[in-house]
Amino acid sequence: MALPTRWSNESPQGTAFHEIVVLPTLAPQLAREYHFPGTPEHAQAALYAQAESLSADYHDSGNPAVEPVIDHVEPAVNDNISTVNDLTFYVLVIVEWTERAAKGGRNPRPKKVSESKNTPSSVEVLKISRSEFITAALSAHNYHKLYIPGPTAGPNMRVSWTGSPGGRTQAPVIEDDKDWKNLQDQLRAAVSRPRCKTNTVCVMFDLDSMDGYKNRKRALSPHLLHDRDSELDIGTHVPRIDAFSADQVALGRVIANIKAAWPCDEHSACFITKDSEHIVLNRFRLNAWGSAIIAGKCLPHQPPPDELVESWLGVKAAVATRVTKPRGHSGPYPMYSSDIRTAPEADSPSNLILTTMLAMLAQNMNQNRSSKSKVPTPPSSPICPSSPPPLLADELDKFLDAFGKAKNIPNEIISAAGVHLRSAHYMPDVIFESSVSVDRLRELTGFAEGEVHALKKFAREWSGKIAAKRAKHRN
Q: DSSP letters along 145-175, please?
């Protein structure tokens, strides 16, 4: 049965179209809240409308006004009706980015590509915050750890659903929490309408504009967190005995005994020689001394072996230097370093044999040098004349081409920057001026902030060279 058309406050509720569209437009004084049939609110409103109608009939018939008694109707609990905020939605996530074409070709241009995926599970869009929604949406492409939403705004996104304002192509941009609240209200109103079957929300991200929200902190590799032999595990955790081998534990204990047996007020731990000379025990010397103790050559409270003391004092190193490094063409100087503690006697047989061998070696080297023919020096290369300066019409293109090669910037980006700079009549001698802002150059070229600073510096150097060339060719 068709619902009656209501034109008075005493009449029952009419159709949804009549209550929501007709009365607010043609008779605003009769407009009232619309209740869906079958709900407790609809039953309550019908009961009040019936009471109003009975009261009006009593007054019209001349009878005394007897107000009917209306029992208060408690709204029934319907387990089949869930609140709107508890609804979950499937989220279709579309990410798009600019793919730079490979170098080569006449005029390669970048193109916009996109990829779409669904979230692993449905999302309570009407309950969660903006940042929570962005994280849940980016998880569809496994980008939720790569980008971090801003605390109050960003990154920008476009959210739409079936019948949303503007559709998918003209969907409004959601920038901050206020925009997100308005969008939730719109979606809540849309799903509250009768016969609404909206269960999917589409969100679109432009990755080219999300560089500022990238997570710059590099995650630790899982294998480094569990590898006991890695430096990271020992350096960021409390050292444990079971993290070292038995040999390392034994060497550590021996080194501790050495430090306890040879303390020094000035250097913490030192070995003091017979001449009262302090040899500071660094980690290399402690490891060598500890290894000798483990091998049974000495004890911690005893002096280290003589060969270790000699190596620490530099005796062997000085002898090796004197023997293997000749000075000049006539062989090494017959002298010893002042650091040598036990120099061999000059008349010893070993010293005479060594000196004779070095003298013969030096003589053979001199003979080989004299027998070699001298290679004639090639004539000096002629000085190449400098290239002429570019024409004024080609100067911007040559400047950008040189800048792109120097900074390894793709040709398509350089070409696009040249078109915008030429349209604004920018030349290299103007780009580096302080009056030209970095933001303006970023707007024209599309370069990053660091690339724009490099462009201004390159323009200053380029303009100086071109001005010198033009002055030279003018003369």
A: TTB---SSEEEEEEEE-TT-TTTTTTPPEEE
Q: Say whether 432 sits in a helix, a strand or coil.
A: coil
What is the per-residue DSSP string for 213-272? Answer: GB--SPPPPHHHHH-TTSHHHHHSS---GGGS-HHHHHHHHHHHHHHHHSEETTTEEEEE
Q: Where are the alpha helices (DSSP H) in 37-97?
A: 40-60
What's the CA gap between 133 and 127, in Å, rounded? 9
Query: What confidence category does residue 363 fall into, taking pLDDT thresholds of 50, 70 and 90?
Result: low
DSSP 204: E
* 278 beta partners: 272
Domain residue limits, the chain: 16-47, 84-99+110-213, 245-313, 392-474
What is the residue type of 5? T
Q: Given CA atoms 53, 56, 62, 65 in this order, what sign does their dihedral have?
A: positive
With tokens 């400047």, the residue in question is 399
**How many Å apart are CA 268 and CA 260, to the nearest integer?**
10
Q: Per-residue pLDDT tens for 287-312?
A: 898 899 988 888 888 889 988 888 88
Dihedral sign, CA of 403, 405, 410, 415?
positive
When pLDDT is cut at 50, 70 and 90, the band that residue 104 belongs to is low
Sorted by sequence, the CB contacts under 8 Å of residue 466 that are 6+ apart come out as: 389, 390, 395, 428
- Range of weakest confidence among 50-64, 259-273, 293-307, 318-332: 318-332
> pLDDT at position 14, please?
79
Residue type at 111 in one-letter notation: K
Dihedral in degrees, nearest 10, Cα atoms 421, 424, 429, 431: -60
Q: What angle do CA 60, 61, 66 make, to 5 degrees?
A: 85
Section 135-148 average pLDDT: 91
User: Do residues 28 and 64 touch, judged by C-beta distance below 8 A?
Assistant: no
CA atoms within 13 A on the CB side of 97: 10
259 contact partners, CB below 8 Å, separation of at least 6 = 268, 269, 281, 286
Q: What is the mean pLDDT of residues 216-243?
A: 50
Global pTM reads 0.34
Averaged pLDDT of the chain: 75
Residue 166, judged by CB atoms within 10 A of its CB (0-12, 13-18, 19+), counts as exposed
